[in-house]
Amino acid sequence: MGRVSIVRSAKAPKDAEIKGLVKKSIDLVGGLGSVVKKGDVVALKPNVVTGRVSKPGVLTDKRIIEAMITLCQEAGASEVQVVEGSGYFTPTDEALEKSGVKAAAEALGASVVNVDKDELIEIPVPGHIIIDKIQVSKSFMGADVRINMPVMKTHDQLLVTLGVKNLKGVIPKTWKRIFHRIGLVKAVVDLSRVVPIDLTVLDAVNAMEGLGPSFGEVVPLNTLMASKDLWSLDLAASRVMGFDVEELDYLKEGLRIGLFDPKKLEIVGEPIEKVARKFKRPPTDLEFGEGITVISDGACSACRGTIHSIVYDLEQMKKMGEIRDLFIVVGANAKVPKGLKNTPIVMGTCLKAQEEEGCYVVGCPPNNDQMLAAIRKVCKLA
Ligand code: SF4
């Protein structure tokens, strides 16, 4: 335990090179044959958080998913499943289709499981730190082998999203909301304790810095990392991104309860120093420039992410320049101020008690279309 491989291509890897890189990263931690046996059902968990933003670094590179499917089949898997539940903003079927992951997987003979439609099983969390039982995709838990395939990204709430956070895709959206309400950091730590992962292959071919997990800047690292130890992989990857354990609450929590031991970390392949760079940190405030004021107190990352996503939409629609005096009030502890220059948008179910104080948008979180309709109304956009 504790061994993590790092492989790097000198240039952006071509399609034909991807499979070799994936294989090399796994060979350095014991090879796929040590994980997948003949006849096994293998579940792959890539990151297909959305289908709406298609730039590199947002989703697990489709070529890496294809390579992994083929490698598992070559190792003797009787069935390979690609299992995913996308983020709030996109129905999972849409994410899997728009990203091209569904078509690519099915073309290779793999099946695709939408976690939001899958049967769930409830798993108790022994010695839980925040949640005593969690409902998880039955397909994922029922597989003989589970392979995690995250992307290296910054994240607006956890600061990074790597292997541990990627597991959130094996719970449905209803449970994602619960996680955000009770506190994402401890909830994902509890989740990681009930979802055994046999192998993690981290896509850092194109990583993301700044406003992750969807709207940041692409970092072409041309790198893959692999480990049989999920937490050691996250420790090594966070160091590649220039983070210290002390900065990352979920790693601190994992360390506190003994889920990994930094002294046992063993890097094989490229040394961390050779690939490391200091990733730009995600903004922790909600400032979007002139014309937009977000009054936030206790907002979950789901609503914060929705606001980021809407600003992205407005930019794409070339409407940002027309926004004047937009006030968004968000978060369970927020109070709608009096005397604002414009009618505020009161965002989300947790502010229902103040719905009369502005233009109320229902939802937990509200969806983009509803928010955009409200913005059009209060800002009188064409
Ligand atoms: S509506 Fe409130 S409780 Fe629901 S996601 Fe937004 S901030 Fe959290």
Give an overview of the whole structure.
This protein is of the alpha/beta class and 382 residues long. The chain has two domains: 3-275, Rossmann fold (3-Layer(aba) Sandwich); 292-379, no CATH class. Helix content is 32%, strand content 22%. It is built from 13 helices and 17 strands. Helix 1 packs across helix 2, helix 7 crosses helix 8 and helix 8 packs across helix 10 (249-256). The longest helix is centred in the C-terminal third of the chain and has 16 residues, at 301-316. The chain starts with a strand and ends with a helix.
Report the end-to-end length measured between terminal Cα atoms. 58 Å
Top-tier CATH class of the largest domain: Alpha Beta
Quickly count the domains: 2
Q: Report the CATH topology name of the largest domain.
A: Rossmann fold
| Beta strand count | 17
Helix content class: 25-40%
Radius of gyration: 21 Å
